[in-house]
TrEMBL record:
Its main location: membrane. The keyword Transferase does not apply. Belongs to the 4-toluene sulfonate uptake permease (TSUP) (TC 2.A.102) family. The lineage of its organism: Bacteria, Pseudomonadati, Pseudomonadota, Gammaproteobacteria, Oceanospirillales. InterPro entries: TM_pro_TauE-like (IPR002781), TSUP (IPR052017). The chain crosses the membrane at residues 39-64, 76-97, 103-122, 134-154, 174-194, 201-222, 234-251. It comes from Marinobacterium aestuarii. This is Probable membrane transporter protein. It is found in: Cell membrane. It is a multi-pass membrane protein. Keywords: Cell membrane, Membrane, Transmembrane, Transmembrane helix, Transport. Pfam families: TauE (PF01925).
Length: 252
């Protein structure tokens, strides 16, 4: 049930911020919403996770409208999805055989690796001279699928890979948004197929959809005054936050 007042306003601000950053960088919507909404107790975790999936599609529709989806690197997108989609189910299967203690250790270790790589990339924003090879993108999709199946976190491998490509920021952003849209739609369909839709989810989705759309449109019209290098550092800074979050959840 939605609580009107301060909680409602805070929820809308979280969604607006996450949508603006997602439209700008191509990722981080789920990270920001899950971290802020859950930490502040604005909605249950399961409802928030479902909300992220639904509103990611809203953000994508607003961000990529007008043909901006054509900017995507289709080679990279296809290669990552080809391995990510099936391996996601492998990750889910592994999750069913993993104890709570082992899962915490895996999350913590993953978080530490992500922190190290993010710090390195923030200070040495290395953009490749040539596109990565087919095996590299396929391996990225495998990692994303495993992380998505085990931890519901698809973003770090794909973001790390795409921000190193010799592409324009518009192409990187479009590729990542398309990637997360497909994975969010898959997860949303899987959950809704097996679980009834609660009133909380419907209410929050109806409340948040126009806010997410407005923030995404605002990001297109009023982008942050950052250079490509600064935007790459900002993206890896968000990955650093993701690593810290995983580490804290895993070890504490």
């Amino acid at each position: 049930m939605i609580v009107f007042g301060g909680s409602e306003l805070l929820l809308l601000l979280c969604l607006a911020l996450a949508s603006y950053i997602q439209a700008t960088t191509g990722f981080a919507f789920g990270l920001i919403v899950m971290a802020t909404v859950t930490a502040l107790g604005l909605a249950p975790i399961d409802v928030t996770a479902l909300l992220v999936g639904a509103l990611t599609l809203v953000n994508a529709a607003a961000t990529l409208r007008g043909g901006r989806w054509r900017d995507a690197n289709w080679r990279a997108l296809g290669l990552m999805l080809a391995t990510c989609l099936p391996v996601t189910f492998v990750g889910l299967e592994l999750l069913s055989y993993t104890s709570e203690g082992q899962l915490g250790l895996l999350k913590g270790t993953l978080g530490l690796c992500l922190i190290g790589s993010s710090l390195l990339m923030m200070y040495r924003v290395t953009q490749l001279e040539k596109p990565s090879s087919v095996p590299a993108f396929a391996f990225c999709g495998v990692l994303a699928g495993l992380m998505g199946g085990l931890f519901a976190v698809f973003g770090p491998p794909a973001t790390f890979m795409m921000y190193r490509q010799p592409d324009r920021i518009a192409a990187i952003r479009a590729t990542l948004i398309c990637f997360f849209s497909v994975m969010s739609a898959l997860r949303l369909v899987a959950v809704l197929w097996t679980e009834p839709v609660g009133e909380s989810f419907v209410g929050l989705a109806l409340l948040g959809a126009p806010v997410v759309m407005f923030a995404a449109v605002a990001a297109r019209r009023f982008p942050p005054p950052l250079s490509n290098q600064a935007l790459r550092r900002f993206a890896f800074g968000l990955l650093l936050l993701s690593g810290i979050s995983l580490t804290l959840k895993g070890f504490f």
